[in-house]
Design goal:
mainly alpha, 4 helices, single chain, 63% helix
Length: 104
């Protein structure tokens, strides 16, 4: 598809993936709901069963999150530092690789 000039060439790939995204969105908006009670494709017996056997949602308060123990945890800081170094190395490689390949 990308090398075929009769089917639109490489630009046609954007149309294909865009069309698939639109089709996916249509199916998503038809079939997916926020809760079983708002679904059009479930019977009332199924909705009652799910409401009787599901765990009720409890909102999480910001004060319930143990921020002090998270921010004083060594593995968290090592992950943050590792991610920062990885991003720095990746973007240095990404920005300098074309210049390096031209000079090669």
């Amino acid at each position: 598809l990308a090398v075929s000039e009769t089917l639109g060439g490489w630009r046609s790939l954007f149309y294909v993936y865009g069309g698939l995204g639109v089709i996916w969105s249509v199916f998503w908006f038809i079939f997916v709901r926020d809760s079983p009670q708002s679904s059009h494709f479930m019977s009332e017996a199924e909705k009652r069963f799910l409401s009787m056997h599901s765990v009720p949602k409890t909102p999480v308060k910001i004060s319930d999150i143990p921020w002090k123990s998270i921010l004083s945890c060594g593995p968290v800081w090592s992950t943050v530092i590792m991610h920062g170094c990885n991003c720095y190395g990746f973007f240095m490689l990404l920005s300098d690789l074309p210049k390096f390949l031209v000079e090669l």
